[in-house]
Amino acid sequence: GYHRRLFEYVSKYHSREQVSGLLLFCSSYVLHIVESCSSTIHLIIRDLASLQKQGPSALLREIKVLVVAHNIPTRLFPDWCATVLTSPVTRPQDSTQSQSTEEMVAECLTLLFGVAACMPKAGEDDSEDANDSPQALATELPIPAETIRCLCEAEECASPGDFLRMYLSPVQPALDS
Fold first, then answer.
1. Residues 54, 66: Cα–Cα separation, whole Å
2. Contacts of 16 (CB under 8 A, 6+ apart)
3. Choice between 5 and 125, residue whose per-residue pLDDT is larger
4. Taking the complete model, does pTM exceed 0.90, yes or no?
């Protein structure tokens, strides 16, 4: 309900550019890909930061912003959709420990791109509910649970509040450079 209301608000009042993406609910994790203009993404990150300020009673905790990219030539998702998946895949814990945060983020993005490739593209299916159907997606989250846990604990991945502080801070290049 929270995410649906947020995206209805964004679509209605910040409609400079269509919002598309994917929201995956999986046991104790929520993964969210948002495709839109930077002002809409900034609004969503601000809302997530306000959620984290609620402390232990917050709807979502340990929120991390993995990647924010601009000027992407094509969208991966035809619409914004949400689905519930079963538990993440598992793999030996020591394989994750040997990876850097950058490698884990790249792995997550690659696996999520695979999910996007399985989704029906715009014009392929005219039914309104095709994108909201769990059958349109894999039933198991392809990202290993250990990778998600490591990324939630990684200092390199910013919380929404940290991301906003960096985003709103002026850049101070060294005068010698």
1. 21
2. 37, 39, 40
3. 5
4. no
- Which among 113, 106, 111, 110 is positioned nearest to 157, based on CA atoms? 106
- CB neighbours of residue 21 within 10 Å: 20
Mapped onto helix, strand or coil, the DSSP state of residue 140 is strand
**φ, ψ for residue 78 (rounded to 5)?**
-75, -25
pLDDT given for residue 172 in this prediction: 63
CA pair distance 38, 41, nearest whole angstrom? 5
- For residue 120, CA distances in Å to 126, 135, 155 come to 10, 11, 36
Instruction: Convert the pLDDT of each residue in 49-96 to its tens digit.
Output: 888 788 777 777 778 888 887 777 888 887 877 777 776 666 655 555
Question: Which domains, ranges and CATH numbers included, belong to the chain?
Answer: 2-86+102-111+138-168 (3.30.70)
Q: Does 98 or 131 have the greater pLDDT score?
A: 98
Backbone angles phi, psi at 141, to 5 degrees: -65, 125
Residue 112 tokens, joined? 């999520």
Q: Which amino acid is at 177?
A: S
In 3D space, the residue among 129, 21, 15 whose CA is nearest the CA of residue 75 turns out to be 21
